[in-house]
Amino acid sequence: MKKQRKRIILLLVLTGTLALAGCFNSGGKTTGNRPESGEAKPIWDFKYDPPITITTAIVDENRPNAFKPGESLTDNVHTRWMEENLGIVTKFDWIVSKFEDADTKIRLALAVNGKLPDTFNAEGDILKNLLQADRLLPLDDAIEKFAHPKLKEALKKYAYTMTEVTKDGKIYGLPRFSEGNEGTVMWIRKDWLEKLSLNPPATISELEHVLKAFSEQDPNRNGQDDEVGLAVPLKEGPWSWMGQTDVIAGALSTQMLSTSDIKLFWNEDGHGGLVYGAVHPDAKRYLETMASWMAKGYIDRNAGIQDSSQASELAVKGLAGVMFGPFWMGAWPLGDTVKADREADWQAYPLPAGPEGLKGKAQKPIYGIYTVFSKDFQHIEAWFAYYNKLLAQNFGPDDPYFDPRFAKGYHEGYDYVIKDGKVITVNFATEGVPNEKWPLADGSSMDMRWMLYPLTGGAPVLPYMNAEAIKKLSENSDAEMRTPIEQGIKGLNSAQLAAAGVAIAEQVLEIPNRYHGPLTDGMEKHGVFLQKLATESFLSIIYGEKPLSYFDEFVALFYKNGGDVITKEVNDWYKENKP
């Protein structure tokens, strides 16, 4: 659950056509020049005078390329722009280097009834404690008055995302939406297939044949037995953000698996209830397959101690020929394989079917952490107004919240430069941009996220908002790009775009998590232990340290050590919230 925080978001938006001042009752007022005709200002055009301050908190991971020399989180081109043009001052109540430290800050504030930031992120037990302490601002009225119509639509369509932050019929937080359409595709070294005269595998059996060939026939032609078929991280179990093996589970069962998160995946049990997929009998089929591949040398023996990034290094170094993951892997990390082998050609292929013809993959969660607001926050409409501006950037000039000042980008010399009338955002040296105009001295692009999103925690996105653009470009690569979303998809390399098309075409195969409730008391008490038990048990079977029959012992231990309590809590919730 902690990993979901990596792209923290604190969202929502203003929708009134009354030029902010008429709606705002929090002490600030907006100013700005009106057209001579006396028409109301556009919704995007507002400024607080005098300026208002919104406080927040952030986990500063010290990302490279985030700021120019002399700039920082607290003082940079965008914070200055916000104050000068919007009348919004961003202040950090705390800046910490670890998510655990942020939790400690919140717990301390709750313990002594201390001040909370105006807006921040919360999940799990921290979120439960905030709700129980009645320290959060109810958002129902603000959503109705100020939310961008597209956000309102998403909140209505994916209403289940709100159950965890709903108390006594009121909403106290906003889900941090993700785009969602990053479902797994099967990446394979096409050049290796061709070298070994192999066809792309259409079934699990054919995939095993490919893994065997990649592992034993020296496809990188270095004369050493250093290849494996599959690059996979097993440190945290079957489900991860990259390199996951959900496809293997989905080819063998309709039960999806995760061992590293007690809230994922709960599947329908066939009797009207839910069961934790990792303890369902079908998990044995996944374990049997993975154990067989490990024993035969098709998987790196270090997979059990590798995370997603570490596993990808094996593929990038030209030592593995198959890896599962999102469509964007075609640029990073797989695109870097050409540094080791100039002929490297990773391509995405449709998912392999199991012996009964099953195909399936996990539905990537479309939300994770929540954006919440202190009960004492006085400027919720201003936060929404700023969020609207960022969300509208995806949809282009036709959106009423789109700020034309950002038509080319956010800040010239930062996320873009102009040369001969052309907007350039990457490859500044190749495009002939003079060194002194590069955003950074080494010619690399700036990571603008830390500047743009201190109040929203990440780029505002909505579920599947780029799906239509992917379909459009997959069908016609020369199609006119009309919105920033389409322009962004157009910027994908050919491997990424093809993979995105495969992912969208196979979206119907996604298996969703059925539990969307809060972290239960049982999860809070037993979850960490059970996650560790499940992950270690799966690894011991995959590595052959325990026989497949040990799975039954693991299941008994799972239920004995709190799994029975959690299962009851989940099913009690499901009875009340079943769609």
UniProtKB/TrEMBL annotation:
InterPro entries: Bact_solute-bd_prot1. PROSITE patterns: PROKAR_LIPOPROTEIN. Residues 1-21 form the signal peptide. Keywords: Signal. This is Uncharacterized protein.
